[in-house]
Each structure stands twice: as structure tokens, then as C-alpha cells.
Amino acid sequence: MLDSLLALGGLVLLRDSVECEGRSLLKALIKKSALCGEQVHILGCEVSEEEFREGYDSDINSRLVYHNLFRDPLNWSKNGKAFPEGPLGALRALCRRTDPGPVTVALDSLSWLLLHLPCTILCQTLHALSHRSSCPDSSSSMERVRVLGLLHEELHGPGPVGALSSLAQVEVTLSGMLSQTSANILYRRPRQRPTHQTQCFSILPDFSLNLQGMSTLESQPHPDPPTTQADPTAHLTFNLRLSEKEKEAKDSLTLPFQFSSEKQQALLCSGPGQATSCIFYEPDAYDDLDHEDPDDDLDI
Amino acid sequence: AKNNVTSFQRKGSRASGTDSGGSRLVSIAGTRPSVRNGQLLVSTGLPALDQLLGGGIAVGTVLLIEEDKYNIYSPLLFKYFLAEGIISRHSLLVASAKEDPANILQELPAPFLDDNCKKEFDEDACNHKTPEPNIEMKIAWRYQLLPKMEAGPVSSSRFGHYYDVSKRIPQELIEASRWHGFFLPEKLSSSLEVEPCSLAHGYLKLLKFIQSIIYEEGFDGSNPQKKQKNILRIGIQNLGSPLWGDDICCTENCSNSHSLTKFLYVLRGLLRTSLSVCVITVPSHLIQNKAVIARVTNLSDTVVGLESFIGSEKETNPLYKDYHGLIHIRQIPRLNNLTCDVSDVKDLGFKLKRKQFTIE
């Protein structure tokens, strides 16, 4: 559910494309968390602050803390308004914040950051940002920091996208036509199987989410071609199953090496009186039949 | 008289000097010599995997686990390895860039206790067997006299234990064990500047850490008067991921493409000269350059790959419906002999039952 995206902490990756833009979804999610009373920090890189704040009413605007990287990303004006350390410094400053309470950080956009920073540094900083542990003196559990990142997937190769997906807890891929946008949501919970969901939605002019139909796909159902399974047990030259009579006959068969009572009788009776076999031996010229017992030589 | 038959005499036990007493073989808890080549082996924690690898992992080698796509099953193997170390009272070194090692240790599976386990195994077995009358064997009756093979834990085994993944290891066992953790974000937080060197920053720090632990604790024989020899089990998680500072997962033509391979080379050198074993998990499905995967495979001793069926078309294939994935044994080392012990069965599947991870 798109509603519950914000319930989980961690990195939420919004992948959009040219056909289906994701900034409006990002703004809708920002509005939702602002309405929940959380602090929202926005790192704006791609659009200007005025354009970003457009469409929000004033009380939401007052809750958004906007870090402007768009105006002067390389700090040319040196008038103190921009970030002296560039985008990396801005991200690290966000990591070092120590305000209490749940926080949402929106990165608009991750693509811009990927193009300006090495991918590994960005991944490490994102990981630090979304897994911020609390201050050593307080013994409370980890704060919930949600990081919403907008990624234009067409700008990057499979490498960075794969690396960022493996870091993300939720990955939302947007697709669809003009009026109908659908989001394919993949939840990667830490030690459980990932789950897919597809939800259609639309965004109203005031950036509230209008959720439409949803389908949960645990596994993709494949349309199997109707083939008849070949039965391997047909047309055999031997019998796989036994009928009752055959079973009885099998059970009553005496096996050659079984020592049954009949055999015992036969062996006993054949003892004295019946010469079953005889050996006839003719000694030939070279045989030296010595009838002495060789053991007699021993001194025992 | 019999005593004068031969001039060979059995060497008596040496009175003093060696720390292991009479026999010249080192006897460390939780290890056993291989029946094939005499190498000292430790258990991976999964007796089924031990069997496939020829008895266990040889001391001084690296076991590389190629992670499955969503990284669900490889952490399990990793945890089995660490849990086995705790039970056998080996020292542990856990390194990760993603999770705090203390948290990893908290999630280790609990060992099966001998009295409860037999009941669990029996009921497990009964659930799967179809009700068949116990037919006495008529033709092959000699086989009935043979003792039945134990599929479950044998109480007297000290090599390879069975673990229950649905339960956590008791806290006192963790506290009683000696472990060292290396959590990369903590180590990196001190220095913001990244020096350009051929080895990625995180790898260099990890190598230095491992080296210092081996030296200080005497695993390489540098403190011969130490009371008892022990094995150091090193576990490194997600090596090669961007969180370690390596960009082999990000681009195909990376600037430091030899970083991971150099790390493995130096690591193997460290392992060969000390009583330690290392298990590394690598997200090889994210590595963009196939040559790097091949080099990494060649540089490791044993390589096992996990392929899970989630999200792939194999999930609905009726052939695989009882299993959660395939396990590929990609490489087994030839240590001090000419051939290696490759198992006959090539297609192996694994499944994660509620309590156990089985390989069939």
C-alpha cells in the first residue's frame, strides 16, 4: 500500500522515467509526513525552491526545511547562503542533525547526487543517514529516519541502480499512461522474503494521494500453455502395479535363500541313507599321497 | 623372544616442551583432520554443507559465498558459521559495513539441545513420510540388521552442530565468547578525507585490523607461551558492496578494479600463516564486470553460490516447488594434493524450513 510506505523507516527509492514522472508522488508523500507532524528536510537540487513549494499550502510550507542546492551548487557566490562543502557536506550535515523525533528526508533528486558524487560515497552516506543511531547518552532505540529518494532510472546504468536498490527498504517503480499511473512496490524487509504490490493511483492538484485499485502479487502467475502432461507410466512393457492375486502369489513364494521349515526338513532327511553326491577320484602318476599327518612333527 | 624381532622402536612421548603433550597433532576443540588429505578442518555450522565441501573448511582458507539476489539466505549461512564458532569456543572476528557486529551476534541461531532435538526431528520426519506399513525386507534382509543412519544431531559429536533458526542464541553464550567487531562506519567516521591508494580505504583498515588481532591474540604463533591454541573465525559481510567503498558494483570500468582482488590476496596470505578461517559473502549479482567475478572466484579457496528462486521464473517451475533455491558449489580447493573432493551430486537445492536450513 502506498499509504504504508512511510510506516517503515529506511530508504524509499522512487524510480521514475520520462513517461511517468515521480516528483509529484514525492511531493505527495512529503505532504503526508508533514501532516503527520514529522519534520521534513528537503535537499533540493533539480528544481528551484519556489517551484518546489508551489502547490503546498502555507502550513505545510512552514514545516518544510528546505536545503537549497539548486541556486548555487558549486558555491560560486560565496555569500554564505550556499553549502561550502557542496552536496556531500549538505548530506553529512543532515546526518549530524540531532533533533529528536521522527524525521523524513527527501532527496530531490538522487540522480543529481549520483552525477555529482561518486556512487560509493553516496551509498555510504545514504546508509549512514537512514540508519542513524541515537546519541550515546540517550538509551532509546534508533530513530526512525525515512529517506525518500527520487531516482530517474534512465539516466543511470544498471550498476548504480542495482547498488541503490540493494540499499533500499522499499522500491517503487512508476509506470503508466497519462491518467493512470501505477506503482510497482517492492518491499525488502531485512530477513524476510520480498513482496511485490502493484497499485494504481493518481495525484490530486493539492498533492494528496488518491489510491485506486491494488493487486498484490506474491509471485507472478505464468500463463501456462495447455499442454497435456505425457504420462510416463503408460505403454510400459512391464507391470507397475500388482493385482491382489498377484500380491498373494508373491508373498507366498519361498525365496531360494530363505531358511524355512520345509528346507530344514529336507536337509535333515537327506542326512543318513541318501547318497546325494559322491566324488570319484583316480590318483594319477604324479600324486604323492602321503598319509602321514604333518602335524606330528610339531613339538607341542 | 619377541622384543628382539625388530630394531625399530616406538618413540615414547616427550616429557616436556611441546604444549600439546604427547601426540604431535594439534588438537583444538571444534576441529578435526580431514580424512582425505590430513588438513585441519572446521565446521561451517551446517553439517550438510560440510559434507559437500569434503568434511569442512580447511584452516587457513577462505570460503566465499555468492549472495542470492535479495540477500536472505546468505546471511543465514554466515550466522551458522559464527554460531558454530561460539559453540566450539573459537574466537570470532565479525566485519560488516551494513550492520553493527553486535547486532549480528544477537541474531545467531540457537543450538539444538540434545534432549529436545530428537523429538523435533522425529516429528519433522513423520510429517513428511506417507503412512506406510513397515514392510520387512525379504530379499535384502541383511540390510535390516544395519544400524539406521542418523539424520539428526548426534549427541556425542563435537564437530558440526545443528541449529534452530527460529530461536536466538542465549545471551550468556555470546558473552562468554571472545569476539572482535569491525563496523566500517565507526572506523571511517574519524577520517573524512579518502587517501587515494590502490586498495580501497575500507579494505585497508579491515586488513590492518585483522592483522592486529591475529598478532595480538597469537593466532600466528607469535606468542608461543599462550596456553591453548585456538582458531580465529573471521566473517566478512557484503564485501565488494558500495558500502565498503568499492565501486565494482556500480560501474563496469571502475577506477579501483583491483581493490577487492588485492584484498583477497593479502587476506589469504594472512590466513595461511595463522590458525584462522574466513567466510566472506559477496553480492556477486551486483558486480558489473564479469572478469572481476572470475578473478575473485580464482582467488578464493572455496566458492559456494546461492541462487534463490524469488522473483524468477523458476519459482513456479514444478521441479523446484519444494525448494527455495539452488546452491552451487563452484570451487573446492586442492590443498596439498592433486585432486579435489568434488561431490557427485551436481544439482543441489536448499530450503529454509521453519527451524532449519537443509540442502538436498
UniProtKB/TrEMBL annotation, chain B:
Q: Where is the composition biased (Polar residues)?
A: 1-18
> What are the entry keywords?
Cytoplasm, Nucleus, tRNA processing
* Region described as Disordered: 1-24
Q: In which pathway does it act?
A: tRNA modification; 5-methoxycarbonylmethyl-2-thiouridine-tRNA biosynthesis
Q: Name one GO cellular component term.
A: transcription elongation factor complex
- Explain the purpose of this protein: Component of the elongator complex which is required for multiple tRNA modifications, including mcm5U (5-methoxycarbonylmethyl uridine), mcm5s2U (5-methoxycarbonylmethyl-2-thiouridine), and ncm5U (5-carbamoylmethyl uridine). The elongator complex catalyzes the formation of carboxymethyluridine in the wobble base at position 34 in tRNAs.
Protein name, entry field: Elongator complex protein 4
What organism is the protein native to?
Loxodonta africana
